[in-house]
Amino acid sequence: MQPKVPLWLINFLIFVYHSTPILFAVSSPALEAEIGADINLGQLMSSFYFSGFTCGLMLFGRISDLWGRRKTMLIGITIFVIASVLLVIGNNPYLLLAFKFIQAFGVSVCSIVTQATSRDSYQGADLMRIYGLNGILVCFVPTVETSIGGFILEKLSWRYCMAWDALKGFLVLICCACWLPETIPDQVRREAGKIKFFSVFKRFMQDKTVIMYGLTAGLSIGMLTGFIIEMPFVFLKSFEIKPTTYGALNVIITVVFLGANFLNLYLIQRQDFIKDFIYYSLWFSFAGCMILLTSSYFIQYTSPVGFMIMVAFMLARLLQGFAHNLLMPYVLGIALEKYRGLFGSASAIFNSMYYFVISMLTFAISYVHQDYSIHAYAVLVSMTSFCTILLFKQTR
């Protein structure tokens, strides 16, 4: 009988790799203030993070097909823990960039191997349901992690945020060592070893539908990441609200995202309807970005105009997140069905594609952030939102 990875362990792994960039986004203003570098350190570290994450996906995905899921997972998490400890003690801004790259390289294993083990264990509507349940968990991650990060920043410093990453990594390492089964049979591993990675890549690049799914996912996650990165600077720096208050604002976001994921669990039973619903929700996301763009022309960080900017930013964040939480379980559940037996390699290519897009978007955000222009940021996310709609339309 095919061993199945426990659902609670899948959720724990997802929590770790989703919470890591969110915690850093909360702590990055304090990091920049303490280190005092002449570069946009927080934004550059975000770009380095997703670049390292992409490299890790490519390597660990292929290795997991050859060495097995369990061994690959333990290696990656160990790297993550070591890099997190180095971030705690680092002082040089350029070394911090390198450590962040390595940290992301290690934690990427929680993404790629978790997806591979999920696809090994489940398929079809069951797999979509697993991703839908994962999405419900992910809804709580920003609220939980920003609240924890805000508390740590108020009571201690950003270095303890990195220590919290190290602790999470150590705990998940123990859990994987004790409870993660090997979900890929030896025979499948031997067969995968006979297939060259380039052959999988060539087959993948000839699959137009999968490429469209990958680019759509990348743009959607990139926008979501952009909001996560930018929100602390808008609310904590520009509007000078307390970190704990900022964490409380995420309760509203969580409720909306939960609604999207519960709706998604229902729509899984309506395969004839779900793609149309996602398509129209992407248009609502675009509308939210346009509201932000329009309001950015009147930006002043004083009441009442400043308050309206906050509302517009939150509305765009909510609408984009709602569409994203409908889109991702469907895309992840259906995109790689034709690559059974090569889920590690195929997932590596697929995930690397959309994380490359994310890296480019976060780099663009860091460039926009140099002059800190809400208007330029609003233009960027509006264009990205419209491109997401065009790409998803190609899969209908």
From TrEMBL:
Membrane topology type: Multi-pass membrane protein
Keyword Transmembrane helix: yes
Annotated localization: Cell inner membrane
One cellular-component annotation, GO: plasma membrane
InterPro entries: MFS (IPR011701), MFS_dom (IPR020846), MFS_trans_sf (IPR036259)
Transmembrane segments: 7-27, 39-60, 72-89, 130-151, 210-235, 247-268, 277-299, 305-327, 348-368, 374-392
Keywords: Membrane, Transmembrane, Transmembrane helix, Transport
Name of the protein described by the UniProt record: Major facilitator superfamily (MFS) profile domain-containing protein
Origin species: Candidatus Phycorickettsia trachydisci
